[in-house]
Design a protein that fits this description.
By secondary structure, the chain is α/β, with parallel strands linked by helices. The protein has one domain: Spore Coat Polysaccharide Biosynthesis Protein SpsA, Chain A. The protein contains seven helices and eleven strands. Strands 1, 4, 5, 6, 7, 8, 9, 10 and 11 form a nine-stranded mixed sheet that branches. The protein has a two-stranded antiparallel ribbon with strand order 2-3. α2 runs antiparallel to α4. The longest helix is centred in the last third of the chain and has 18 residues.
Length: about 230
Amino acid sequence: MHSVAILAGGQATRFGGRDKSALVIGGRTILDRQIAELSALSTDLLIVGDMRPGARAFPASAWPQEDQATARLADAPEARRRQGREVRAIADLVPGCGPLGGVHAALTEARGDAVFVVACDMPYVTAPLGAFLLDLARDADLVVPRTERGYHPLCAVYTRACLAAVARRVAERRLALRDLVADVRARVVTVEELDRFGACDRLLANVNTPAEYAGLESTDALQGHQLS
């Protein structure tokens, strides 16, 4: 069995602390797009975040409007419904460890032996790409794309075999997620392999700044106009 984990615990400092998963692209929030697309991969969908008091952690946008007032992770890991699907809210087990802490929580709480991990600000990740990465995990502990920008550990598959190395790094506060590649059996996915699923710049696009968001919005609008 496989699981899918959306990491929603970033502080979004370059985006003014806004909940990036709630940004709208192509008429839908990024989180809605991700859940609709990636639920094809697994019935075990996790959204992982920081539940410490005062943290801008789990996005209220993850739940239906009537639940948003109480949607923080106070009652994690209670399962809720989103788009007719069960989605589990999972708290970081060791708060303040960034994406590595999110991977640690996901691997600990996932029902599957392999977890497709994506950041909550990646609107164009597709189920076929995720299925390809999950398939490669049969012969590796970690499957991670690499482009000219380096590794992309927030669009990667982590198996339970990574958990000991992840937990050790969390305990030692060595939190650079990319460095995990040296500790486990890693399968690096090339640009040529990624291109089978579309332009890798689009597949792996994320939103770090308002300017990047504006660029994605305008590109999406242009492509929608060309298809109409």
